[in-house]
Design goal:
mainly alpha, 10 helices, TetR_C_Proteobacteria, Arc Repressor Mutant, subunit A, DNA-binding transcription factor activity, 70% helix
């Protein structure tokens, strides 16, 4: 599929959008969602108020953009084909670990947790627009593998939760809670590999039973 090359004006708009999202994320973390105005975000990002309001008419729309940016992947439109669950889950696991390792993802969760008592809608936005669409893509992939006969998964929702949880519990949650927590690339690869092997073994299709001939 050929990619559409953005025009000069489109590139400028994209660059300004990125500056706005970055500035908003930083200010939400520094001052809190409630105390951060769109005018302050425009000043921090170095764009005019008119430019900011043209792209984001409200703070809610701006937070939605932070969610989308945090959960976006370059190859999200190309899910792995069914037929080889180890290869497919390895691809998904690497994508997920890369997402969780981004500073934007940690920032997003910190904003949501800090503002949850006063702005529960932020948590709903993060869950419905970020977490759940990604989770659904993994669930759909496991269902496709089940239907293809490569694995036998009676509860694909549970299997997806198990797989993603094995990765996030090591790669993401400690980093969110413990300052300075770091996981090497080699360790992340090992965590993903072990998660893949665990799911593949747990949901492997039963092989033929012992022969009764002779």
């Amino acid at each position: 599929m050929s990619r559409v090359v953005p025009t000069y004006h489109q590139r400028v708009a994209q660059e300004k959008r990125a500056l706005i999202v970055t500035a908003a994320t930083a200010l939400f973390l520094e001052l809190g969602y409630d105390r951060t105005s769109l005018a302050r975000i425009a000043e921090r990002s170095g764009v005019s108020r008119a430019t900011l309001f043209k792209q984001f008419p409200s703070k809610a729309a701006l937070f939605d953009a932070i969610v989308a940016e945090s959960w976006s992947t370059a190859d999200e439109v190309d899910p792995p084909p069914a037929g080889n669950v180890v290869d497919g889950l390895s691809m998904i696991g690497r994508r997920y670990a890369e997402l969780l390792g981004r500073a934007q993802m940690t920032d997003l969760f910190r904003i949501v947790i800090a503002e949850l008592p006063r702005f529960p809608e932020l948590a709903h936005a993060q869950f419905s627009q970020g977490k759940m669409p990604y989770f659904e893509s993994v669930r759909s992939y496991l269902l496709a593998e089940h239907e293809a006969g490569t694995v036998r998964v009676e509860d694909v929702e549970l299997a997806a939760t198990q797989f993603l949880g094995m990765i996030s519990n090591y790669v993401f949650w400690p980093a969110l809670l413990v300052p300075g927590w770091e996981v090497s690339a080699e360790r992340v690869a090992q965590v993903v590999d072990e998660a893949v092997r665990t799911i593949a073994a747990r949901y492997a299709t039963p092989g033929p039973g012992p022969s009764t001939d002779g």
